Amino acid sequence: MKSGIIVQNPSTGSNCEIKVFLFQVELGWSRAIISGASSLAFFIMGAGGIIAGRLNDRIGPKIIMVVSGTSLGLGYLFMARMQAAWQLYLLYGLMVGIGFSTHDVITLSTVARWFTERRGMMSGIVKVGTGAGQLLVPLVAAALIAAYGWRNAYSIIGATALVILVMAALVLRRDPREKGQLPDGKSATVGGSSAVTSERSFSLKKAFRTGPFWILCIAEFTIFFCLLTMIVHIVPHATDLGLPPGTAAGVLATIGGVSMVGRISMGTANDKIGGKRSLIICFIILLCGLCWLQIAGRAWMLFLFAAVYGFSHGGFFTVMSPTVAELFGTGSHGLLFGVILFSGTIGGAVGPVLAGRMFDVSGSYQTVFWVLIGLAVSGLILVTWLRSPQLADSGT
């Protein structure tokens, strides 16, 4: 079996991260071709999330997840037989991109409707699954490739994903009322129904007319710009400092592992202190990590950075969905969350490319880190202005 490369395209949230194993030597494709397909998938994920969120608000998650799960599974299955570059763009860029477009919007929007008192904690638990997948799936995939070759590995991964995702989709419900319940497992026959029926609900048109919605969109842009830039460039930076490749990869793995702690911790905190304060905490921790990175020149210092940064990384991906529900209600949560996530994907697409260009020009990541610090400060200032919008703010 010929050697290959791993093209990693972390999502929003988010998002689970996308891992695509393509064997550059065997197929003779350039990194530009492979990166182009990865960028297409990332764009489809963001744009598709808006559509999926809108549909989830209207018809619920079951059909949408069946379609997206089928697209993801078949995309990987057919990739086992691909020979031409255009097939990579069709199967991975389009089909797998559609498959991943629902993974954050649908799951977290559904959680937001099923839970009120423990919305943040349950979102954190769901996002812990993303972190676990980030750690385990590459190991499983590598073992399958070593044992059966990459084409057979793709077939196994595709078939497994198809079955699991479709089966999981069949048990999903839009909200607890379809099961005769209220959020947090309360019975619809018990008091509390007024709280559900009186919950304010912003449409996209109404949300567009409020300042907090645009604050969240811009803040999400800065978040994804910073987070995806670090995920893409932290290993090259570590090797530039003299760390062996295995140790440098360990820094990235530490980020993934600690992010799970950040997801559950900040999700639980969100239930107690609210979305605004949770976002402020995440930004402050991110700034501490980025400032430390400016002077981190040894292995232990980079691992300390990974622990601090990883906590904020996981926290950001958890608290945004509950914050949207807290400020705008759950009536159009999927659509609103999808639009905000799409703002993030723009930052996530621009950040790593711009950082790479800045490194090529200067030969150092120092300027890149200062840019990230500036963006993090901007995001922190923005979220301090967050307030709970009233329907009157939207012009209605």
What does it look like?
There is one protein chain. The chain has 396 residues and is mainly α. It has two domains: 5-176, MFS general substrate transporter like domains (Growth Hormone, Chain: A), CATH 1.20.1250.20; 199-387, MFS general substrate transporter like domains (Growth Hormone, Chain: A). It has helices at residues 24-27, 31-59, 61-79, 85-100, 105-114, 119-148, 150-169, 193-197, 204-208, 211-240, 245-273, 275-293, 299-328, 333-362, 366-384; strands spanning 5-9, 18-22, 181-182, 186-187. Strands 1-2 form a two-stranded antiparallel ribbon. A two-stranded antiparallel sheet has the order 3-4. A hairpin with an 8-residue loop joins strand 1 (5-9) and strand 2 (18-22). Helix 2 packs parallel to helix 5, helix 10 runs antiparallel to helix 13 (299-328) and helix 10 (211-240) packs parallel to helix 14. The N and C termini lie far apart (64 Å). Residues 1-23 and 191-197 have low confidence and may be disordered.
How many beta-strand elements? 4
* CATH architecture term of the largest domain: Up-down Bundle
What's the mean pLDDT score? 84
Q: Spans of 5+ residues with little confidence (pLDDT < 50)?
A: 1-23, 191-197
At the fold tier of CATH, the topology name of the largest domain is Growth Hormone, Chain: A
SSE layout and pairing:
Layout: E1 5-9, E2 18-22, H1 24-27, H2 31-59, H3 61-79, H4 85-100, H5 105-114, H6 119-148, H7 150-169, E3 181-182, E4 186-187, H8 193-197, H9 204-208, H10 211-240, H11 245-273, H12 275-293, H13 299-328, H14 333-362, H15 366-384
Antiparallel strand pairs: 1-2, 3-4
Helix pairs in contact: 2-3, 2-4, 2-5, 2-14, 3-4, 3-7, 5-6, 5-14, 6-7, 6-11, 6-13, 10-11, 10-13, 10-14, 10-15, 11-12, 11-13, 12-13, 12-15
